[in-house]
TrEMBL record:
Domain of life: Bacteria
Chain segments carrying region Disordered: 1-21
Species, as recorded: Actinacidiphila cocklensis
Protein name in the entry: HNH endonuclease
């Protein structure tokens, strides 16, 4: 898998995950897909709050 890039402006995000912060509505699907790619690429875990938020976003894409 190639190294993912972050295609979405994330000013204001800090270290918040998708359960705590989301970009404007027009970028949420792109942001969620990028978040999953980065987590997978880096071998990072996803907690239950992230999973719930990401599922809700991606099911609406």
């Amino acid at each position: 898998m190639p190294r993912p890039h972050w295609p979405v402006p994330h000013v204001g995000q800090g270290d918040d995950d998708p359960a705590e912060w989301l970009p404007r509505a027009s970028y949420q699907s792109t942001h969620a897909r990028a978040w999953v790619q980065v987590k997978h690429y880096c071998g990072l875990t996803v907690d239950s709050a992230e999973t719930s938020a990401l599922s809700s976003i991606l099911n609406g894409c």
